[in-house]
Specification:
This protein is an alpha+beta fold. It has two domains: 125 residues, no CATH class; 190 residues, 3-Layer(aba) Sandwich (Rossmann fold), CATH 3.40.50. The chain contains nine helices and 19 strands. A seven-stranded mixed β-sheet has the order 1-2-3-7-6-5-4. The protein has a six-stranded mixed β-sheet with strand order 11-9-10-17-19-18, sandwiched between helices. Strand 9 and strand 10 form a beta hairpin. The radius of gyration is 21 Å and the shape is globular. The chain starts with 20 loop residues before the first strand and ends with a helix.
Length: 339
Amino acid sequence: MRMTPLGDPVDPFDEQTSPRWRRQAHLLGASFEFLADDEALLALADAAYAGLPPQRLGNAAPLQVRLRRGDAAGWPPDLERPPAARHLSGAGVVGVALDAVNMALVMPELGRALVTVSPELLARPRDARIELVECAVYQLAARAQGLHALHAGAVALDDRAALLIGHSGAGKSTLTLQAMRQGLAGVTEDGAFLDPVSLRVLGVPGFLHLRTDSLDRIDDPALRARLAVSPVIRRRSGAEKAVLDLRGTGLALAGDPPALALLVFLSPEPAAGPDPWRPLAPHEVAARLAATQPYAAWRPGWADTVERCAHLPAFELGRGRDPGDNAARLRLLLGAGAA
């Protein structure tokens, strides 16, 4: 982070530097204000959140993220990717640190977060956005509003949402894209937040990450053309994925959070019979939530939330059917519940 000379009698903590750039957005149910030292830092927030429909929940006072330019980190110029994030907590602060300069510190009780970015990381804006800015926003929104953070995707039809739950590589992104092509609104690809009071689902629907070896199954010419010029990233697991920015595609993005109405657990195993959709009993739903959401399991109120979710319609979706067919079935299930 930024350092000032030891013993500076005027401003030893560099507190009198006023941010020149400001941006406001309604994200994950809360009103966010981003404050930045310079326009390049504010561009990190714009890349993630500009142009998204507002999401209002009304559970929190306005939240603020301060973006500051830090000193040089001293990374070698040929560094392939930034250091892995290390998690930290204590004295009412949670956050992540890549090194002594690049970090995101979140103070939920104050409704504030501080993100510092070195010149080296600012030259890699995607990494800065994902590792620090998005981390700060997610942690601040979830903790300030008491939301359950889930490893799940979500889509919605009108005011009804389906959670798509499965391990990485289970097909959440592909099913999300196919569902959006059939008129459902995207809520989030992989990071859903659930309000334990209203059971409303929140997320950031800006991007989809699609495996490059699955792109030939997309038969929409406009989407294929867009994917052809989309950046391709390599995850730490080694998987290569095309990054599809959903803004401007004409696909629907969810605004104010829909109510949870359906749970779909995507299985990596082939379907046992001709119908890959197997209904789940309440005890099975509870067991699967416990197995797939270890982070949420120790948060306050999780047991009550599981009990309520266990009595919603739920299915295991095995591999085997075309994703477009599964998206059509998903739309019918959400529509039938509304009727």
